[in-house]
Design a protein that fits this description.
globular, alpha/beta, 11 helices, 15 strands
């Protein structure tokens, strides 16, 4: 079925109303140099089984999560998804629900979002959390816009160069149309962000650091927040691996004003960049500047527990000039899945799983260093890390690729100055057998 199933008669009536003789006439005002002439080279149609075979052939030509092991993190992490998470998130009332346009009529949806907000706020150490964002990158961009709103006449934000490159690219896209300046902060030898030059920025609205950062290094949020607050700016703590909060103090508990990042690790499989989940929390005093939606708890006229859409500061609901964002929320199913995963793990399970990730990465890192690699940075890491090989690592990487093991991400395309450096990751899904096999190939 076509998306716009209009008949020829209906099209004729609409053209007559617009004073045009054909659909092409609707675009006659466009200059010739921006119009495509000729037919677009699109392959012909395939039957269902032909298309299935074609997609299977394409799948076999690349290494995906179905490979034996993918030792790459870089913002997307392979974690075990408990069967209870798959089972509950696949229930029809969750799987088919949509953003409620009459929210108080959808108490189940609102309660699910409320539980997600509660678990998110506890995880991030913030006083309030919203109903989710699209992904970690857009969450960070919205967070920096939020610091500029709160800072009013301030026009500059600073962001660590160790923040995920894709996140920084989205931030630049968001801020480019406005009169804003983005300052990128350099790194020290330990892989942590150098904050020494911040006092030279006069109109600084916010500073964003990621921990663990793109190199897996743990930043000192407490020291960063104290320094930034002393300069009269807001401190934004970003993340791409929320599981790390099972071992390390939550950013909100050590002074971060806004905490945001990617929640894909909580119940969502890797799938060529989606689906993702933007987690977002802040201090209570900034709640009215926060983008997205907030679900609240109340009681009805009979004193029964109920849920309402407390804040919805999107231009769809309020005057455009007062809107904080055009984002309403992430897909509710992603937030629901993350809430189920967090509730299933609990505080103890989260800590145990985080410790397992830390130990697996430490075992791999120790083996690579013993095989002749050296660390790119000396700072503490979580479940991923960067190393430099004295010799060309590509032959060993190709041999491992032939065995279905994707070992390491070359960092030079993102950071040309790092040379022969690779980013490795080991989560709980990587067995000791796989790690030993990688180390054996590296030692050859």
């Amino acid at each position: 079925m076509r998306y716009l199933p209009h008949t020829e008669e209906e099209i004729g009536e609409m053209l007559a109303a617009t004073g045009r003789r054909s659909l092409d006439d609707l675009f006659a005002h466009l200059p010739d140099d921006v119009r495509y002439e000729g037919d677009i080279d699109i392959p012909g149609p395939l039957s269902e089984w032909e298309l299935t075979d074609h997609l299977q052939d394409l799948g076999q030509s690349m290494f995906t999560g179905s490979s034996r092991a993918v030792l790459i993190g870089a913002g997307s992490y392979d974690h075990h998804q408990p069967e209870i998470v798959r089972s509950l998130s696949g229930r029809a009332e969750f799987l088919t629900s949509y953003t409620p346009y009459q929210p108080e009529m959808a108490q189940g949806t609102l309660q699910g979002i409320f539980e997600f907000q509660t678990l998110t706020a506890r995880l991030l150490g913030t006083e309030v959390a919203n109903a989710s964002m699209y992904d970690g990158a857009s969450a960070l961009a919205e967070a920096l816009l939020m610091t500029l709103r709160i800072g009013k006449k301030k026009r500059t934000v600073a962001i660590s160069s160790a923040v995920h490159p894709h996140y920084r690219e989205v931030v630049r896209t968001y801020l480019a149309p406005g009169p804003f300046e983005i300052v990128e902060l350099s790194l020290g030898e330990d892989g942590r962000t150098n904050l020494s030059g911040l006092d030279e920025i006069d109109d600084l609205a916010g500073v964003a650091l990621q921990s663990p950062n793109f190199f897996g290094v743990i930043e000192d949020h407490a020291a960063g927040a104290e320094l930034v607050h002393g300069l009269g700016a807001l401190y934004v703590a970003c993340f791409s691996e929320p599981l790390s909060f099972g071992l390390f103090k939550s950013p909100g508990s050590v002074g971060a004003d806004i905490v945001c990042g990617e929640g894909q690790s909580f119940g969502m499989k890797q799938s060529f960049g989606g689906a993702g989940l933007g987690m977002f929390g802040c201090k209570q005093q900034f709640v009215r500047s926060m983008p997205g939606r907030v679900v609240g708890q109340t009681v009805d006229m009979e004193g029964k527990r109920g849920f309402v859409l407390t804040l919805s500061t999107r231009e769809q609901h309020i005057r455009r000039e007062k809107a904080t964002s055009n984002i309403c929320s992430n897909q509710g199913l992603c937030a629901m899945t993350a809430a189920i995963q967090m509730a299933t793990l609990g505080r103890t399970g989260l800590r145990q799983l985080a410790k397992l990730n830390y130990d697996k990465a430490a075992y791999l890192r120790k083996g690579l260093l013993a095989a002749g690699a050296r660390p790119l940075f000396s700072g503490p890491v979580f479940n991923e890390f960067a190393v430099i090989f004295a010799d060309d690592f590509e032959p060993a990487r190709e041999r491992l690729l032939g065995k279905g093991i994707v070992a390491g991400l070359p960092l030079a395309p993102f950071y040309p100055d790092v040379g022969n450096a690779f980013l490795f990751c080991a989560t709980e899904t990587v067995s000791k057998t796989i790690i030993d096999e990688v180390l054996e190939e590296v030692r050859r």
